[in-house]
Amino acid sequence: MEEIKKMLNQNRLSNCFSFRDEIFENIKTGKMGAHIVENALFLFQKEHLGFYKFYYFVQDLENLFLAKDLLEKYHAQGDVVLEFTSKRRYGLEELQPIVENLGFFLYESIERYIPSKDDKIPDLSVKEGKANLYATEEDAEEIFEILKNEFDCLMVTIPSVEELKTKFIANKTLFIEKDPITNEIVYIQMYLLRGKTLDGFCNWLRKDYRTGTNWIDFSAGTSIALANLHLNYNRLFGWFARSNKKVIKLYTKIFKHKPDGVSCDIFTYKKKRTRESFGMS
């Protein structure tokens, strides 16, 4: 562990932005496998849906080839994903050919969007309309099944049932709408509060409801519900898959969001994209 701590404290190229204490805790609990190969450190974090996120700490990107045997080992147990977050895709030009030669495929690019008013939060003082429902713990299982079935977990962070309860429902930042007859959930919008930043993701509307003004009406209901909470945040972000043209059009044309230059490029080891994922990441 001491050697790992030493390498983490050095100035290295990395795709990992987790706090060091969080990394150590994940290693101790067995959630993350840590491997030192020559002068490189590689981490494999197991996600609750059975795949691995691959992180590197290297002095030169060519050192990534030292992870080849490890990638084969973990790939035999589940999919392996490499995420690279950057501002205006800085560094991607150097990284992409190396990881592709290593056996990765570009799976999707996720872009961060912000409200258009000089990066400030939007005006949520909506007086007309109906606020969304706040999800309850009784809704958690149904929400999890919807997210698991409707989103691609390799490109969208899908919280576990327990995380839905503790990180979203407890903070009243998970909004839903239900069918008035069947009482089934037909709309989901989730926000994660990190300090004074509100991250929006997993925006979903059931297929038979994607008509008329439902998207706009339900989204307006989310704005009302958020305003009623009086949360102490000053930045609101949304993450959209670049391939999801319909949702991007909705949020840029109707809600006046715009990309702020931050993106996350997702690479998968020996796995090409085979299906589209609907919604917001």
- Strand proportion, as a percent range, falls in 25-35%
* Biggest sheet character: 12 strands, mixed
> Percent range for helical residues?
25-40%
SSE order: HEHEEEHEHEEHHEEEHEHE
Distance between the amino and carboxyl termini: 34 Å
Quick one: how many beta strands? 12
Radius of gyration: 20 Å
Low-confidence stretches: 118-127, 277-281
CATH class of the largest domain: Alpha Beta
From the coordinates shown, what is the CATH architecture of the largest domain?
3-Layer(aba) Sandwich
What fold name goes in the CATH topology slot of the largest domain? Aminopeptidase
The number of helical segments is: 8
Number of discrete domains: 2
Q: Which word captures the global form?
A: elongated
Mean pLDDT: 89
The fourth-level CATH homologous superfamily of the largest domain is Gcn5-related N-acetyltransferase (GNAT)
Structural class: alpha+beta
Please describe what this structure looks like.
The protein is built from 8 helices and 12 strands. It has 281 residues and is α+β, with helices and mostly antiparallel strands. It folds into 2 domains: 2-110, no CATH class; 115-260, Aminopeptidase (3-Layer(aba) Sandwich). Strands 1, 2, 3, 4, 5, 6, 7, 8, 9, 10, 11 and 12 form a 12-stranded mixed beta sheet that branches. Strand 2 and strand 3 form a beta hairpin. Helix 5 (140-150) packs across helix 6 (161-169). The radius of gyration is 20 Å and the shape is elongated. The two termini are 34 Å apart. Residues 118-127 and 277-281 have low confidence and may be disordered.
